[in-house]
Specification:
Length: 240
């Protein structure tokens, strides 16, 4: 029979896989698919019309981000537990960077949600002309877009640190560590390019995370960690 410790760590691994899957789906919908359907980059009137016509879907996209952020917050704990036998301080550092990334992006999501209120029918908004309100709604969405992109380095650094721990762990495949390091570096590079050379800040850099992310998610869901090696690593660290 498996020990309670073995069952516990595998539960963390499986939970991480489920949370990662939910984060990818809800984030893809809330950050990618739905905003791309509603926001017309340089057309305030068309964007405002879309927000009003698809108000529920606009709110649903925000709910998607909310679910993603809840999953990512829980993932910070799960990955800390899974990787702390390799190096507790580095695993904690990765958790801090992950939480910082989630928190800063959560602040920028406020601008996304506020776009609806610029287009509301409150009495105090009557002071502005309709085209002014439309422009403010689009500007709010641009704050959301750029604000989120300007802080992706936190998310990238979290994965660079985790990838190092995965590579060293012995209870997760080294290939996952390599792929996730490339993905995390892509986030960091794009972030700094967005600041220093915006013309070169391609979304391709963000896509570098997907191969490793999908492999890691599948591995955690269907294989979990090598419990014997996890226990061995945890025991050796505690004895050191």
């Amino acid at each position: 029979m498996k020990s309670s410790n073995q069952l516990n760590i595998q539960a963390y691994a499986r939970a991480a896989g489920v949370l990662f899957l939910l984060s990818l789906i809800s984030g893809g919908f809330g950050e990618g698919y739905m905003p791309a359907k509603i926001i017309i980059s340089n057309d305030a009137a068309a964007t405002a019309a879309n927000i009003k016509a698809f108000a529920f879907l606009f709110r649903l996209a925000f709910a998607g981000f909310l679910l993603e952020s809840l999953c990512d917050t829980a993932l910070s704990l799960n990955f800390y537990v899974l990787l702390k036998p390799v190096d507790k301080q580095l695993s904690l550092l990765a958790a801090f960077f992950g939480l910082m990334g989630t928190a800063t992006f959560a602040v920028t999501e406020l601008f996304y949600f506020m776009a609806m209120y610029w287009l509301g029918d409150a009495a105090y908004l009557k002071t502005f002309r309709p085209e002014q309100l439309q422009a403010m709604a689009l500007l709010s969405l641009k704050y959301y877009t750029y604000g989120g992109a300007l802080f992706t380095a936190y998310y990238g650094v979290a994965w660079i640190v985790r990838s190092y721990l995965i590579f060293r762990s012995g209870y997760l495949p080294k290939l996952i560590g390599v792929l996730m390091a490339i993905g995390g570096l892509g986030f960091v590079v794009r972030n700094f390019l967005l600041v220093l050379a915006p013309a070169y800040a391609s979304d391709v850099f963000l896509m570098l995370l997907f191969p490793g992310g999908l492999l890691l998610m599948g591995w955690l869901l269907f294989r979990g960690v090598d419990v014997a090696k996890w226990n061995e690593t945890a025991s050796s660290r505690s004895a050191a």
